[in-house]
Design brief:
heterodimer, B: six-stranded mixed β-sheet, four-stranded antiparallel β-sheet, globular
Chain lengths: 242, 221
């Protein structure tokens, strides 16, 4: 069943808010599992979840860094006077891991919304037109940027540059080369876009109309009710646990 | 022995129902001159990307020198097959025209003297030497195209794949490009020309592979 984008935005907002408010590891772990369950329920392609594996090294780094600087708790690994791993360090590291993951996972929920629907949702929420336009351009630009980056990377390699070997030698020079066509492309696209916007009379008239419309269905109201009940249960449960 | 071989290759872009390339089998031999023709969206550029290993076929296999293309790293493919994209700006990433041509030579391990000599030779051949200090992005589309072609050719690939090279060229430059392609081919470099420019293909005089909706409609010498 089709769910209104505003309902999804509400879920994202509540999950993100909880991730920022709660610091308890058990609550955050519960929210993390809930985020995955929601993504599965909304049939977010699991392929996207696979991309998160690249973040694992970042999380691992965070856990190690926390362990290195947080000296409270029982030492798990030490080298002379230096604490390499402590129970509290692992605890704080895991907390940060869950917090970041919930924020990223909840954001993935919006992947299932068509870009146009997101814009319409913001319009209905009375967000200023200029801000909506910026978000809209941002959404459209991201896949284009990714493609451009991949194309340039391929073009550099097709000229005989082995990026695996270059890493040790002239890494900065090659990556600077990589960004010059991207910056050029962004500049050119922005320039063309501003001209096209003016040609189509952007901001010429005060009221702007939209070809499509979005509206809440009965299922949306049911979901919102469910969200309120689950959120209340989480708040009560977290308070009792504390 | 074929240089590039495609065996029942199919490719469908993510989110599309219709395949861009469907069960294409082709044998391309060393030093051949081939024009791949077809309407917009017939799968010509996708076929080129499959030949270069930039896209991985969902069905079938692409071979380079009888070895599956995925066995080759991209720089190795680039040394064998020179590719000029239909969007030349995507292939420009240096601050001057001279550096753009010299880039590949430096990575190939050429000395400074050889790099200068070859860069000058190619820039003069393409009538671009006077633009050597220009920022490549400031050039006209036609000039950008020629810069990319020279940057690829200077590396002396076995085959040159050109995707819509005449798109931004005027009549005079098209004629110039035609004679350049003939000279390159005469020196033993094979050429795959992807285009829907009928007049240019007629003058190109090579094997013609015509594509319709991702399939090879006719393959004639």
């Amino acid at each position: 069943m089709k769910v209104d984008v505003r309902t999804k935005l509400l879920i994202v907002a509540i999950l993100s808010l909880f991730a920022l408010i709660y610091q308890d590891l058990v609550v955050l772990a519960g929210l993390f599992l809930l985020s995955i369950a929601i993504l599965l329920a909304f049939r977010v392609p699991l392929r996207i979840l696979g991309n998160m594996k690249y973040m694992l090294f970042f999380y691992l780094g965070l856990i190690l860094m926390q362990s290195f600087f947080v000296h409270s708790g029982k030492p798990l690994l030490r080298w002379g006077d230096l604490y390499l791993l402590t129970t509290d360090g692992v605890f704080y590291g895991a907390t940060i891991f869950f917090r970041f993951s919930i924020l990223a996972l909840s954001g993935l929920l919006l992947v299932t919304c068509p870009g146009g629907d997101l814009v319409l949702a913001l319009v209905k929420m009375k967000v200023p037109g200029e801000i909506i336009l910026m978000i809209q351009i941002g959404i459209r630009f991201l896949p284009v940027l990714k493609d451009e980056l991949q194309n340039t990377l391929a073009a550099i390699q097709l000229r005989g540059v082995d990026l695996k070997k270059v890493y040790k030698r002239k890494v900065i020079k090659v990556y600077v080369s990589l960004f010059s066509p991207i910056i050029y492309m962004i500049y050119k696209k922005a320039e063309k876009l501003s001209i096209l916007l003016e040609l189509r009379g952007f901001r010429k008239y005060e009221k702007r109309t939209y070809y499509r419309d979005i509206s809440f269905s009965k299922f949306d109201y049911f979901l919102i009710g469910l969200i309120i009940i689950i959120s209340s249960l989480i708040i009560i449960g977290a308070e009792r646990y504390r | 022995m074929s240089l590039i071989s495609l065996d029942q290759v199919s490719y469908t872009y993510y989110g599309r129902k219709e395949p861009a390339v469907s069960s294409v089998s082709l044998q391309i031999f060393k030093g051949e001159k081939i024009a791949i023709t077809g309407l917009n969206g017939s799968g010509k550029s996708t076929l080129a990307k499959l030949m270069l290993g930039l896209l991985k076929p969902q069905k079938g296999q692409v071979y380079l020198h009888n070895c599956p293309i995925e066995k080759y790293p991209l720089p190795e493919i680039g040394r064998k097959l020179g590719y000029v994209s239909q969007r030349p700006y995507q292939m420009l990433f240096n601050t001057t025209v001279y550096k753009e041509i010299a880039f590949g030579l430096k990575w190939k391990g050429k000395t400074r003297t050889d790099t200068y000599r070859l860069t000058r030779e190619y820039l003069e051949y393409f009538d671009l030497w006077h633009l050597k200090d220009e920022l490549p992005y400031n050039l006209s589309e036609g000039q950008k195209q020629l810069v990319v072609i020279s940057a690829v050719l200077v590396l002396e690939p076995e085959f040159l794949i050109l995707d819509e090279p005449t798109k931004s060229l005027d009549k005079k430059r098209k004629k110039h490009l035609q004679s350049i392609l003939y000279n390159i081919w005469s020196r033993g470099t094979g050429i795959i020309l992807i285009s829907h420019d009928r007049a240019f293909i007629k003058d190109f005089q090579g094997r013609r592979v015509h594509m319709v909706r991702g399939e090879v409609d006719c393959d004639e010498s």
